[in-house]
């Protein structure tokens, strides 16, 4: 006895098959239109269509003699074909009890002949149909001819589907097929069953780019094709998917343990080094990730695998298992990027604080460093130690520096207008030094606020200066000639050398706090700081020590000739009002 739910299940399966083919609402295709024109000519009828039966509509993938793209499914003959999976002939719609009152009959259609579009799995997607405005008898030969045309349509559908699921270079199923197969696991395996997948990356993105530039795409194609046989063996006979330029995914055998499976992959990594000149041009890595059948989305599985493979590349370890903790950190990073981009246009979230730089000789304060702070509306205060490194490694650098420079110059103008002659230092990233209009923007801002150029100092790290030394030096020299002060920040942590320090048109060298903290109990560190100060003075630079937190450290720095100090011993970074009170108190 058939289950009362069987028709519903059959229809759900039919609709899922239709969805997987991704045909609905796609653009017209000459391959289908050619068959539709052939049908109209063969039957000498004004109307022909490839009609797909959706939940509540008939959508035409191809049509002749039809103005609209879809009609309601209700009382549509093509829907009856989809439900029965059989040829439907209606010599005269007005003589048929089911369709005499249909919208099709009301529009003047009298004749209908439709043949089912059947998938290999037995689902009927719709119909290849021909229609006329006059009644007409149907022969068996005509029904057979229309069935042949319907088979041609299905062959074209399956061909396009295969082309969309097979990578043309490797011949392997692609990412779309992987997603479909992972979803289909829920049919075969218990819901929530844990599976293990691997992603093999044959080379890093940089290596692929270099290979493309030097040897061209044919070389990359050869690397991919050459890897396929070994990957099939590695997958233990299971399906291997080509999901990226040089990335492949496969599932571990159902009974494989993580230890045994990862061991086999590590052995493969050790053995598969390519021969010849390519041996040192590619670095293979493997990412592993577990996923729960029916719970984890296929694209999330791919993302986790990619994340694990990238972790392996970064750690130079060959293989890594997906880490939710690392993933959370990356998710946080990208959230911060998006939120900071938004915050740059919202004056309520970002603000500047200012930390004094104090003379070690007379305790006077003639300058402050502007530091960016972020108070997120939902997450509260976000540490600059978290978001500043992100700024420096993304395209946010230009917009952020622009925001800080404008805010700093506004505050500087306000102080100068109130008779407070302070110099404000602003941190600048490597990206800013490479901007062709950076110098002009800085000088235009100073002119707009009627500020002397020497009232602004730009602090640049050694690593920023060395990213593109020629461009950095040209920009610095132009700013220095205009009177803007230049400071080398975090001195000693980057590429310090006599030649480098001598070439840069800097006024100030700031010794990084990692050298300053603890000098009271470390004679070697104190000797190193003293040597750095002497070197800087010999080259004509003033020296500022960062991270001064005690009176003892301040005295030691004073004794070895340091010019200025900055740190919690003197003051934490302050908002302008608090800074004004601090200055008044001195």
From TrEMBL:
<dbReference type="InterPro" id="IPR003018">
    <property type="entry name" value="GAF"/>
</dbReference>
<dbReference type="InterPro" id="IPR035919">
    <property type="entry name" value="EAL_sf"/>
</dbReference>
<dbReference type="InterPro" id="IPR001633">
    <property type="entry name" value="EAL_dom"/>
</dbReference>
<dbReference type="InterPro" id="IPR050706">
    <property type="entry name" value="Cyclic-di-GMP_PDE-like"/>
</dbReference>
<dbReference type="InterPro" id="IPR029016">
    <property type="entry name" value="GAF-like_dom_sf"/>
</dbReference>
<dbReference type="Pfam" id="PF01590">
    <property type="entry name" value="GAF"/>
</dbReference>
<feature type="domain" description="EAL">
    <location>
        <begin position="333"/>
        <end position="586"/>
    </location>
</feature>
<dbReference type="InterPro" id="IPR043128">
    <property type="entry name" value="Rev_trsase/Diguanyl_cyclase"/>
</dbReference>
<dbReference type="Pfam" id="PF00563">
    <property type="entry name" value="EAL"/>
</dbReference>
<protein>
    <submittedName>
        <fullName>Bifunctional diguanylate cyclase/phosphodiesterase</fullName>
    </submittedName>
</protein>
């Amino acid at each position: 006895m058939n289950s009362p739910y069987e028709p519903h299940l059959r229809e759900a399966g039919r609709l899922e098959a239709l969805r997987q083919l991704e045909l609905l609402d796609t653009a017209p295709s000459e391959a289908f239109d050619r068959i539709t024109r052939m049908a109209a000519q063969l039957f000498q009828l004004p109307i022909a269509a490839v009609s797909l039966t959706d939940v509540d509509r008939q959508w035409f993938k191809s049509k002749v003699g039809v103005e609209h793209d879809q009609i309601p499914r209700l009382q549509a003959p093509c829907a009856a074909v989809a439900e029965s999976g059989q040829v439907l002939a209606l010599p005269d719609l007005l003589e048929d009890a089911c369709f005499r009152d249909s919208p099709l009959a009301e529009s003047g259609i009298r004749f209908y002949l439709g043949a089912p579009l059947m998938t290999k799995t037995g689902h009927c997607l719709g119909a290849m149909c021909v229609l006329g405005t006059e009644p007409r008898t149907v022969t068996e030969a005509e029904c057979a001819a229309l069935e042949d045309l319907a088979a041609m349509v299905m062959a074209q559908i399956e061909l396009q589907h295969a082309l969309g699921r097979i990578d043309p270079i490797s011949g392997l199923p692609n990412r779309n097929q992987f997603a479909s197969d992972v979803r289909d696991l829920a049919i075969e395996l218990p819901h929530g069953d844990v599976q293990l997948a691997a992603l093999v990356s044959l080379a890093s993105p940089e290596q692929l780019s270099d290979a493309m530039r030097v040897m061209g795409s044919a070389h990359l194609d050869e690397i991919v094709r050459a890897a396929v046989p070994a990957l099939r063996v590695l997958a233990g006979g299971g399906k291997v998917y080509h999901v990226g330029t040089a990335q492949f995914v496969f599932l571990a055998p159902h009974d494989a343990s993580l230890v045994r499976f990862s061991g086999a992959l590590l052995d493969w990594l050790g053995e598969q080094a390519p021969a010849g000149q390519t041996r040192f041009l590619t670095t293979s890595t493997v990412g592993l990730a577990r996923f729960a059948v029916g719970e984890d989305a296929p694209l999330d599985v791919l993302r986790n695998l990619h994340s694990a493979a990238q972790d392996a590349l970064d750690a130079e370890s060959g293989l890594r298992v997906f880490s939710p903790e690392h993933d959370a950190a990356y998710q946080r990073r990208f959230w911060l990027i998006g939120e900071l981009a938004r915050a740059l246009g919202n004056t309520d979230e970002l603000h500047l604080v200012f930390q004094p730089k104090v003379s070690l000789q007379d305790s006077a304060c003639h300058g402050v460093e502007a530091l960016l702070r972020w108070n997120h509306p939902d997450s509260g205060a976000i540490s600059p130690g978290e978001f500043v490194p992100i700024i420096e490694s993304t395209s946010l650098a230009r917009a952020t520096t622009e925001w800080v420079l404008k805010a700093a110059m506004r505050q500087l103008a306000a102080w100068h207008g109130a008779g407070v002659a302070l110099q404000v230092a602003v941190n600048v990233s490597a990206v800013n030094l490479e901007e062709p209009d950076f110098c002009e923007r800085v000088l235009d801002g100073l002119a707009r606020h009627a500020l002397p150029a020497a009232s602004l100092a730009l602090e640049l790290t050694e690593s920023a200066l060395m990213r593109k030394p020629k461009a950095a030096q040209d920009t610095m020299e132009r700013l220095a000639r205009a009177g803007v002060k230049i400071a080398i920040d975090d001195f000693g942590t980057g590429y310090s050398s006599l030649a480098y320090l001598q070439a840069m048109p800097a006024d100030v060298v700031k010794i990084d706090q990692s050298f300053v903290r603890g000098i009271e109990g470390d004679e070697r560190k104190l000797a190193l700081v003293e040597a750095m100060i002497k070197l800087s003075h010999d080259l004509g630079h003033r020296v500022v020590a960062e991270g001064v937190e005690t009176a003892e450290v301040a005295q030691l720095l004073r004794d070895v000739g340091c010019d200025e100090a900055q740190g919690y011993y003197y003051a934490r970074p302050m908002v302008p009002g608090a800074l004004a009170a601090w200055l008044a108190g001195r």
